[in-house]
């Protein structure tokens, strides 16, 4: 729990931060007990509405990568594609929320690109998993998205 949050936060923000930390603690317990899918489901439900707590997204996407690895071995390609596309959208929504929130706080426009440099939690592994699953079932949309994403990562080196 967040014990030492300063009084400069308003009460609703403090409660929201404490609630988010509680979800993260429950996630870690489930994950440590080997129930990665339930842990991921818990965090996913916490991220349905975009928010600025980027650690939730990082942990969720890390769990999803582990699940995707298992699902690829079991030829569950549709599940992998759905999960990676959902992660891409959720990541984008999170970055938009961070941009809006911090632009308001600092009274100046802060772009999604500004936050993307440090807080984007999509990895090249996600793009490669999307490509592998897309090729396996000839999903042209997934293949195109994956190829474009891979180019983005390769261009940023």
How does this structure look, described?
With 157 residues, this protein is mostly helical. Helix content is 78%, strand content 0%. It has seven helices and no strands. It has helices at 11-32, 36-47, 54-73, 77-106, 112-119, 124-137, 140-155. The protein is flat. The termini are far apart.
Q: How would you summarize what this structure contains?
A:
The protein is mainly α and 157 residues long. The protein is 78% helix and 0% strand.
Total strands: 0
Cα radius of gyration in angstroms: 17 Å
The percent of residues in helical segments reads: over 70%
Straight-line distance between termini: 38 Å
Chain-averaged pLDDT: 89
Which series of helices and strands comes N to C? HHHHHHH
| Biggest beta sheet attributes | none
Q: How many helical elements? A: 7
What portion of the residues fall into strands of 2 or more residues?
Answer: under 5%
The class by helix and strand makeup works out as mainly alpha
Topology (elements, then pairings):
Elements: H1 11-32, H2 36-47, H3 54-73, H4 77-106, H5 112-119, H6 124-137, H7 140-155
What are the salient characteristics of this protein?
157 residues; mainly alpha; 7 helices; flat
